[in-house]
């Protein structure tokens, strides 16, 4: 399933925009992995490297990384730039499921 289809689906989709050179992005990855592991198939999760996907970064108006977004049925439910803990991510996902 491509990214557009995931965003449009009934399932919650989390997209994390990052870069390989970004220290905060590297620090946040284990928190993302831990939070997402709790949901199994209940949530789609995509990591998008802005250097490898500059077109997507432009479409989503990414100005800084890490930037994380939640979508459901084509609507952006939440967006945040900066590092979050696994607990914070879990709370945000629970609020939007």
TrEMBL record:
Domain Thioredoxin: 1-97
CDD domains: TRX_family
InterPro entries in UniProt: Thioredoxin, Thioredoxin-like_sf, Thioredoxin_domain
Pfam families: Thioredoxin (PF00085)
Alphabetized UniProt keyword annotations: Disulfide bond, Electron transport, Redox-active center, Transport
Family named by the database record: Belongs to the thioredoxin family.
Protein name: Thioredoxin family protein
